[in-house]
């Protein structure tokens, strides 16, 4: 009996959060390091189907960094990161496109179907969803070339909205056509793509799954985990952060600056991390809010 009462209490605890997010779009970035085992892929797919079943509209944007690195190595292409972004030659771009669209995207769509959901795989090329321009990175104050790496400058979210209306879970690859350049593709950091899409969709929340508990103010000191940070404080902290965290925290900051009410970095190695973050009052990981909460 005690066990049954505890289960009821857990369900009731979720009620205000279900009401808060019902009918809203939530963008979830599923990082390559958070999809490392079949069990984690399955629990992620279950979370997406759960959200959809209680009336929340999940939109997935996925990464696949480790999977891309593996495929490039197999083809004898070395991976080099500059300021947190993969230097992407034309040859590497073809591999990035293939891995993200045919391997990672299809895998997530299939996992969702296996647990009873209906997902639609999309990429920036589909229905001109994204349009991008090339970007560089700053390394030690110097501007460096990144090849076929870009930022999204225009989003046409009609196809994503239509899928949501049809009860589907859109699963989006972070590839963008290059604006004004025929058949040229750009490799977009998936955190950045998720943020841009969240703003365009006026999402209620952006969640970024990764392989750490959250943002550490003084990385790698374990006692420096940040549970909540305001946008102004994050803006000041940003220049002090290291490689992988720069696009991630910039993505959260751009999302809240762009009108998304909340962004969160959560530990994707924890099964059902999305449900824990969205449906429990304390949440998990690091939450970014629009105002400075100091
Ligand atoms: N301040 C920080 N807080 C948390 N993680 C950090 C920090 N600085 C660097 N990192 C590193 O960033 C990594 C996450 O970035 P990344 O590997 O790009 O993730 P993903 O593949 O999920 O996009 C963590 O595993 C950690 O090693
Ligand atoms: C420009 C750039 O760096 N693009 C990323 C795109 C994939 C990604 O972001 O994957 P994760 O989220 O798993 O890291 C890359 O090539 O690795």
From TrEMBL:
Pathway: Amino-acid biosynthesis; L-arginine biosynthesis; N(2)-acetyl-L-ornithine from L-glutamate: step 2/4. It is found in: Cytoplasm. One of its GO terms (molecular function) is ATP binding. Substrate binds at residues 64-65, 86, 187. Residues 25-267 form the Aspartate/glutamate/uridylate kinase domain. It comes from the Bacteria. One of its GO terms (cellular component) is cytoplasm. NCBIfam families: argB. PANTHER family: N-ACETYLGLUTAMATE SYNTHASE, N-ACETYLGLUTAMATE SYNTHASE, MITOCHONDRIAL. Belongs to the acetylglutamate kinase family. ArgB subfamily. Catalyzes the ATP-dependent phosphorylation of N-acetyl-L-glutamate. This is Acetylglutamate kinase. The gene is argB.
